[in-house]
Amino acid sequence: RNMSSAGPEGRKKMRECDGLIDSLVYYIQGAIADHEPNDKATENCVCILHNLSYQLETELPESYAQSIYMQRRNISSNDKTPGCFGTRSRKVKEKQQDTPLPEEKSNPRGVESLWHSTLIRIYLSLIAKSTRNYTQEASLGALQNLTAGTGPMPFAVARTVVQKANGLPSIRTMLHVSHPTVKKTAVSLLRNLSRNTSLQSDIAREVLPDLVSILPESVPGSDTVCETTASICYTLYNLTQSSSHNARLLLSADGLPKIIAISMNDSNMFSKASRAASVLLYSLWSHPDLHSAYKK
């Protein structure tokens, strides 16, 4: 567990170690099957996998990058050829978002397991069944890592979490735990998921009222709470930017007074949260059909 957080070279060596990832996954599967999701060894295994999934998209070997990402059917040869994981242009990102992953291998080995739906479902199972905060945080954090990039893999993982594995109810529960870093990681995961336009209606329906409910009335003096509040605002921004329906949902959940209060709290300590709230307010005003409701 300690070695897996030693930096990119350490992660690379551990991902390449024959049988290591497979053994970690095997152990966790056994713990879940034996109804023992709270033992210390399971926590250690999940924390290792969490660390090994960090920056996975950018650190994958060239061979994997080519086999996973060469389905850029809609990118014309006239476009500037993106690297293994695409350029950061919106045009390429939109096209990548619609590009499916190749069919999953039924028996993934080694590094292939890190983004496979089997492990995604294991993380969601641990989020639902474990009561250890570190296990919950590491499971959420691994999914956050896997959904953090801009290529097809993060969007495919996001679709698996939301639509194939029905993971939103478990993630929603983590929004209401008392442990601040677990809550922060759950919100950060939802922020990543909410970037995928095809999932926004599902996410809004399932968790938007919960996100509004955990917004503070004003930002308390804690860095963790400030960062969590900023992430909630950016998640709500993603969900409402192109959807008047979702903006109305936010309004009906009494989110507007909270967002206004946070946006006006402009001391240096809270600037990250107040800036995010201001960006959200600006976006909400872009729905003219809601202006009269806002004014009321």
From TrEMBL:
Residue span of region Disordered: 79-109
InterPro entries from the UniProt entry: ARM-like, ARM-type_fold, Armadillo, Plakophilin/d_Catenin
Bias type Basic and acidic residues, positions: 94-107
Major localization class: other
Alphabetically ordered keywords of this record: Cell adhesion, Cell junction, Repeat
GO CC terms, sorted: adherens junction; cytoplasm; intercalated disc; nucleus; plasma membrane
Keyword match Repeat: yes
Chain segments annotated as coiled-coil in the UniProt record: none
GO terms of biological process kind: cell-cell adhesion; desmosome organization; heart development; intermediate filament bundle assembly; protein localization to plasma membrane
UniProt family annotation: Belongs to the beta-catenin family.
Name of the protein described by the UniProt record: PKP2 protein
